[in-house]
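It is worth pausing here to work through a concrete case rather than discussing structure prediction in the abstract. The textbook approach is simple: state the sequence, then state the predicted structure, then interpret. We follow exactly that order.
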Amino acid sequence: MTRASAAVAAIPAEEPVDAAPAPQPSAAPAAAAVVAVPAAPPRGTAARPGDARRRAMFERMQGIVLGIGFPIALVILWHQLVVMSGTKLVPTPYQVGLMMYDFVFGGIHDDAFSGTILTHLLMSMQRVYGGFALAALLGIPLGLLIGKVKVVRQLLDPTLSLLRPIPVTAWLPLSMIFFGLGPRSAIFLVFLGAFYPILLNTIFGVRSVDPKLFEAAAMLGCDGSRMFRQVVLPAATPSIFNGLRLAHGFAWILIVVGEMTGVPTGLGSVIMDGRTLSRTDLVITGMIVIGVAGFLTDRMIVAINNRLLRWSPQHHG
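Step two, the predicted structure:
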């Protein structure tokens, strides 16, 4: 062997550049396993069953406080404005409170209105709910029929659209001619005011039923009258209740107009007598009683709505 060959043989061989490094144990799988394990919530932060209940109670209390606080703020503002203006035409809340007490219990003014709230309230309620019931009994079936049957819609829709814009007050002279002076004229005017909201909302509810519901019901063997009872009526019920609430509000609004037809009793009659006698406190008292009575009965309609539509939380009032 030559010296050159010996020198070459003495040089250590280098590792190939492309040679893959030997595999080393890695901590990645262990890290992945650690990440995959859900972290336990910190102690004391786990949701407890009572949290949702307390939150719901807090929201209810907040709603009650805000609902009561705003009217109280309006009463305070009313008092301040009357005192600042010095007017004698508008009574203060205190004077209205005295009139309200006398209207309920008597013993302050001792006039024809003292202690007569039940007499006037019951008579007005009879007229309001007489007209409202007639409007519902006619408006709901007719709305279902117009919304479902095209021929009936083509027959009646132009006439109803022509009559609907006529103000109820324009019917006042005709109502006295048709029904005479008395409660029947008031019931007729309330009926007119409540009829169209019920009718239009019922028609809208029927016309807006999703066609896919009919297809699904037909696939399940539902047809004819069963289709109407099980698909159309439940789907239209939220709109029907919206119409009933609107009509109920109009019925109380129009009782004042209805009792302008010469009836001796009723809250509308009390308001008209207060206007004639220039007793603004009596007028405001009648307005407050109408507002409270309308609010309480509206809550009854909402309760029925929530009961019948408990399957549809988004339609709760």
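Step three, interpretation. The two ends are 107 Å apart (CA to CA). Residues 119-308 form a domain with the MetI-like fold fold (CATH 1.10.3720.10).
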